[in-house]
Amino acid sequence: MVVLSAVVDEASAQSFRWGICPLPPVQQDFNVSRYMGTWFEIEKLPAVFERGTCQQATYTLLGDDTVNVRNAELLSSGQVNAIEAVAKVENTSQPAILAVSFFKGVPDSPYWVLSTDYLTSSLVYSCCDYLTLFHIDYAWILARTRALPDHVVRQQRDKLAAAGIRTDRLTVSNQTGCDALP
Predict the structure, then answer these.
(1) pLDDT tens per residue, the chain (182 residues)?
(2) What is the rounded end-to-end Cα distance, in angstroms, of the chain?
(3) CB of 162 within 8 A of CB of 22?
(4) H or E segment and range at residue 170
(5) Domain ranges, ordered by start, for the chain
(6) Distances in Å between the alpha carbon of 152 and those of 11, 158, 159?
(7) What's the CATH architecture for 2-172?
């Protein structure tokens, strides 16, 4: 019981749900090459590993059909906090489903592109089941710029809801005062 309590406490800063992960549909005919570049976080389900503001992710194709992922944020101290990972498409028949490896020996994190127009916005989902009793999910509304029109954000929220993903805990990401990040 103590272990479950500790997990629930840790998950309280995230989107903790009973039951198994939903399986939302992903972008059809996803093109990894067109997705490359920088995406800025507009809204998200809370994630304990995000502590700052100005969150952004930069994706770069590597020569071996993998993608370098660089996540960066600005901490309250003014320092840039960044981490790099490698993503790969696990099944070429579903290229919108990627696995991201941040640390050797730790299971890969799922990265599902639910929708993107490649030029303006993207909707990403990730979910991990624990003991088939509960799951922790993450969702990000991303943009090529540090802001999106309200109607586009609403459309992305509606897509999440239609996929069975609860949106009541989505939070707006602070993308102001981001001069320290390129």
Answers:
(1) 333 333 444 445 566 678 888 899 999 999 999 999 999 999 999 888 898 999 999 999 997 879 999 999 999 999 999 999 999 998 999 999 999 999 888 888 999 999 999 999 999 999 988 788 888 899 999 999 999 999 999 999 999 999 989 899 999 999 999 987 87
(2) 45
(3) no
(4) none
(5) 2-172
(6) 29, 10, 11
(7) Beta Barrel (2.40)
